[in-house]
Amino acid sequence: MIEFKNVSKWYGDYQALVNISAQVTQGEVLVVCGPSGSGKSTLIRTINRLEPIQEGKILIDKTDVHDCGSIDEMRSHIGFVFQQFNLFPHMNVLDNLTMAPIMLKRARKRDVEEHAQALLERVGLAHKANAFPGELSGGQQQRVAIARALAMKPRIMLFDEPTSALDPEMVNEVLQVMKGLAMEGMTMVCVTHEMNFAKDVADMVWFMDAGKIVEQAPPADFFTNPQTDRAKKFLADIRH
Amino acid sequence: MIEFKNVSKWYGDYQALVNISAQVTQGEVLVVCGPSGSGKSTLIRTINRLEPIQEGKILIDKTDVHDCGSIDEMRSHIGFVFQQFNLFPHMNVLDNLTMAPIMLKRARKRDVEEHAQALLERVGLAHKANAFPGELSGGQQQRVAIARALAMKPRIMLFDEPTSALDPEMVNEVLQVMKGLAMEGMTMVCVTHEMNFAKDVADMVWFMDAGKIVEQAPPADFFTNPQTDRAKKFLADIRH
Amino acid sequence: MNYTLDFASLLSNGYPGLILRGVATTLEMTALAWLIAFALGSLLTVLRTLQIRVLDYLIVLYIAFHRNVPMLVHILLWYFGIAAIVPAFINDRINFLGGEFFYSTIAIGLVTAAYVSEDLRSAIRSIPHGQMEASRTLGLSYLRSMRKVILPQAFIISIPTLTNQTLLLFKNTSLAMAIGLIELTGAGREIESATFKTFEVYLVVTVIYLSISLVLMFVGAYLSKRSAFRAR
Amino acid sequence: DVLDTVKDRGTLVCGTLGTSEPFSFQDPATRKVVGYEVDLCQKIADHIGVKLEIKMISVAARIPELVAGRVDVVAANLGWSPDRAKQIDYSYADYVSPQKILIRRSDADKFKTPADLSGQRVSAVSGSSSEAGAKRLIPDVTTVTFKDPPTAFLALQQQKVSGFVGSELMLLKFKQQSESTPVKLDILDKALFTEPWGVGIRKGETALLKQVNDTFAGLEASGEGEKIFEKWFGKDTDFYSKREFKLEEIKG
Amino acid sequence: MLDILSNNWLLLLVGQYPNGDMGGLVATVGLALSSLLLACPFGILLALGRISSHKVFYYPATVIVYIVRGLPLIMFIFWAYFFVPIVINRPVAGGTTMVVALVFYESAYISEIIRSGIQALPAGQLEAGRSLGLSYIQTMRKVILPQALFNTIPSILSQFISTVKETSLGFVISVHELTFAAAQINNMLLTKPFEVFGLLALTYFTLNLILTGLVKLVETRIANSRILAAQG
Ligand SMILES: Nc1ncnc2c1ncn2[C@@H]1O[C@H](COP(=O)(O)OP(=O)(O)OP(=O)(O)O)[C@@H](O)[C@H]1O
Ligand SMILES: Nc1ncnc2c1ncn2[C@@H]1O[C@H](COP(=O)(O)OP(=O)(O)OP(=O)(O)O)[C@@H](O)[C@H]1O
Ligand SMILES: [Mg+2]
Ligand SMILES: [Mg+2]
């Protein structure tokens, strides 16, 4: 479904991704982890071309993301959830969800709104449809952000540390929503340090360091039996 | 040398110093400690009238600081070192040291500069004479700040938490300079939480709480045998 | 628009000299008004930090008046209005020196001073209080601390806004044309009304203004790059 | 051409100064512009059979406004000069004006003839023929120019200049004004030069020019021109003067 | 001064209207308002050009902004005065000339305001819009500009005050605004320039003081609603 072929990316002189080749299959839940600065965000952001790459290819369902007709069309099938939520503060929750579908899909406004309401129901925020983002807690905002991405009926969902900007007591409500999605068979790529989430629902873990994928393994193997020293140290650090 | 006589100070309704009477003798090294908000900074700042007092007197060599001809003349004999260094960022290190002596003393510019160079030597920063404060580390900046105060050839040096804004690895370089001063017989009043410094060089420790000096004792007594519960708790907290 | 450009007729009748004298007048006026603006602006700023109630009100009023009334009106007010009420012997002196230049320079300088003092004030506010305390602690008096420690930093911090003020001041000197001063714009108008070579004249004047402005912007950018406190 | 446009539009746009009594000036009571030149414009408009629209313009803008087509005709103290005649066409003369110099009475001993003002600063209205004349005829003079006559007068009163060059009538009015102020003024007897005034029309607009000249010829023939003159320059006015010209072609 | 006001207040307020064009204070405010409203769309376009990564948009926009910043407003007025009629081949009223010049001039300043408003928004806003599949233009229209414009309302209102002051230059080309009306009164009275121009200054002062108050009001309101938006 998603395929990296010899992908390299530079920020000026600094090489942030080093010749990455790997793939994610349909319905797979992938967790990407690794130390700070290892290139996790860069990697996930190249998938929907928020960052350009200088070498290699990234294919989604055989289409080259970095060389395709309309990247906008492409992106509308890929949900992206940011660490900082990035809700639109000048629109209420419902408008946050419906704005893009109304502009981009030839669907009826009523249908879009009904779908949006259903999604809000699902993330437990049906009663907040008319609230503004500024009036919500961080956890609520992030759940709205997930619902906003889902409103476009994406085939893939990307998460870049969706819970790191949250107070601890809110992390769980967001993880629950993500787990629900995983159960339903959504293809997901999640950059996260929530190792329990990885253990519970991931099909695969990629461990990155210095712009490379150093280990690729199912969570059972990765957590119990990491192969590289880097990964061992990382896991030790995370457990304190 | 410094004498507090029934000193009281209010910030609006809040009484920050409560009827303080105490004295510091020539050549004494005094450490003032106490919990946050107890009035340490307020106390030390009243000594050179950075804060006005409402009741009582503070005498330095018999002159009433808060009621004297020229406070500027007075201050030029009292060095003050701040937590935030407060170097002048638009002047290089040498100018930081020489500006005030050149303006205030009828000394020749050459003499002032020679003295300044000697002081920089002493704090280990002779090679930084032409650097700007922004190019120095915190520890270096604080050492320059001490040299700047010394450039006025003060009779008393006041330190208000000189090391609290420093990264741990730099604390020592500053304490070394202060110890050197103490050894040479400078009269010093230091607000600090560096208990080792107090143990090593202080002649006297004042422990403050709620605007009062609760204990006055030589460090040997104060650290081994604090008299009040407040002081006991404070020492326990500091040792973790 | 079939129009043949004719710059040749601008080269006759001493017109180049007129333009050059216009440029000189514009620059002289910019320099003098700049001095007034920066000296008075600094003074007002320092006076305001003293926090004397009555003085504060007066300065606030001064600033409000100069910021809220158009520059052109200030120039008219000075040239015709104030001139009408100053004693004759002073006025004679001024007129002997050239009242148009004198009064418009004053008007422009005073207005810009109001802006400069606002810029400096906000710069001073952004300087940590510890700077003043450190300087006072060394034994420097309040005014000396201001002069050696606070104001220099304030000037450096506000180089970008002050560059902007300088640029505006330079552009505003063109308003003196309204009272008959032959500065750059006035010279242009004069030649234009004699030759009717409107396009050519204004092209020349425009290019001159633009060149000087770009130099000012460049100098401002250079200064702020050079004197930024290194890596604060 | 312009005449067609005027007829289509139904209005003749006539540029006047509005600051030059009695040629064109604001009646304080009605805030309307009235005067000798306004009346002449009215006659031209009547002759063409359209309404009149008065537009106030500054002295310096007279020719540019006309050339740019913002006004159809200019009746604004427009002195004839060979330079200008290259830019625009002139109608028959509608006034002949001696250009004189106004000075402060206190300077009367110093300045007796225009030549005495050499090396001095004199004010004039910017873009006026007086300004050009002053520069041409007084050696070493510095002209300080203003947008309108009253400010040029004010400059003289406020001692900013030593003299004010302008048409005699205009100066006469200012002289009278000054009698009620501390700084009294006088006009030098000897005229700097004399110039005929006319209505300005864009070059090549012969049809419109003909209409204007026909109007003037008619006014002259019927004696109505004389009457209009009487109305603004007659015995009971502040500007009493004799009519020493006819509405006829300017001989350059 | 009071009798001048009571005799001429109508002229100061509306000029010669209804015997001529609308003038005076009403024209001043009207000119400023219409120029600024017209300048806003251009300002937005210029701002978009200034933040564009495409050279074809960036360079022209930048050059325009620098040219405008480098030239006195009066040069724009002259250019507009003499060349707008030639370009559109039709006579143009003085008011229109003034509006054209002001629109040009203000567009550049407004574009800088809007640009800084856009750049003050977190980069995540643009990324979030693009990630949903909205195009750059769509994201600008629905996500970025609404926020940037809202946040910059106070600065744009301040620019309105500047524009009010700048309309006074209309006087130079005999646009019947407030300064022109005052000059007319001065010409009628002749001997009271101090009073007349003082009165003029006070009128601007009062008008702009009221507007400044308005800006402050709007500013606090917006600051409050920003706090609301930033709570999360
Ligand atoms: N816009 C940029 N310009 C230059 N270098 C960048 C940029 N963005 C990221 N980098 C560098 O690229 C490297 C990888 O960054 P990236 O943000 O992908 O790391 P990460 O694994 O997501 O780290 P974290 O866990 O801290 O989010 C880092 O060294 C970073 O400094
Ligand atoms: N400028 C001021 N206005 C009002 N209250 C003040 C002011 N400065 C200090 N205080 C109050 O006076 C009390 C003593 O403050 P002070 O700074 O002297 O404490 P401290 O012992 O130096 O504390 P710390 O260890 O945190 O520096 C505190 O309660 C403080 O809140
Ligand atoms: Mg990251
Ligand atoms: Mg303290």
Automatic annotation (TrEMBL), chains A, B:
SMART domains: AAA (SM00382). Residues 2-235 form the ABC transporter domain. This is Polar amino acid transport system ATP-binding protein. Keywords: ATP-binding, Cell membrane, Membrane, Nucleotide-binding, Transport. The keyword Glycoprotein does not apply. Signal peptide: none annotated. Belongs to the ABC transporter superfamily. It comes from Pollutimonas bauzanensis. One of its GO terms (molecular function) is ABC-type amino acid transporter activity. It comes from the Bacteria.
Automatic annotation (TrEMBL), chain C:
Keywords: Amino-acid transport, Cell membrane, Membrane, Transmembrane, Transmembrane helix, Transport. It comes from the Bacteria. The chain crosses the membrane at residues 31-50, 71-90, 96-116, 201-223. Residues 23-220 form the ABC transmembrane type-1 domain. It is found in: Cell inner membrane; Cell membrane. Part of the binding-protein-dependent transport system for glutamine; probably responsible for the translocation of the substrate across the membrane. Coiled coil: none annotated. This is Amino acid ABC transporter membrane protein 1, PAAT family (TC 3.A.1.3.-). It comes from Pollutimonas bauzanensis. It is a multi-pass membrane protein. GO terms for molecular function: transmembrane transporter activity. GO terms for biological process: amino acid transport. Pfam families: BPD_transp_1. Belongs to the binding-protein-dependent transport system permease family. HisMQ subfamily. GO terms for cellular component: ATP-binding cassette (ABC) transporter complex. Its main location: membrane. InterPro entries: AA_ABC_transptr_permease_3TM, ArtM/GltK/GlnP/TcyL/YhdX-like, MetI-like, MetI-like_sf.
TrEMBL record, chain E:
It is a multi-pass membrane protein. One of its GO terms (biological process) is amino acid transport. Residues 25-215 form the ABC transmembrane type-1 domain. GO terms for cellular component: ATP-binding cassette (ABC) transporter complex. It is found in: Cell inner membrane; Cell membrane. The chain crosses the membrane at residues 25-49, 56-82, 196-218. The keyword Transport applies. The keyword Ribonucleoprotein does not apply. Signal peptide: none annotated. Keywords: Cell membrane, Membrane, Transmembrane, Transmembrane helix, Transport. GO terms for molecular function: transmembrane transporter activity. Pfam families: BPD_transp_1. It comes from the Bacteria. Belongs to the binding-protein-dependent transport system permease family. HisMQ subfamily. This is Polar amino acid transport system permease protein. It comes from Pollutimonas bauzanensis.
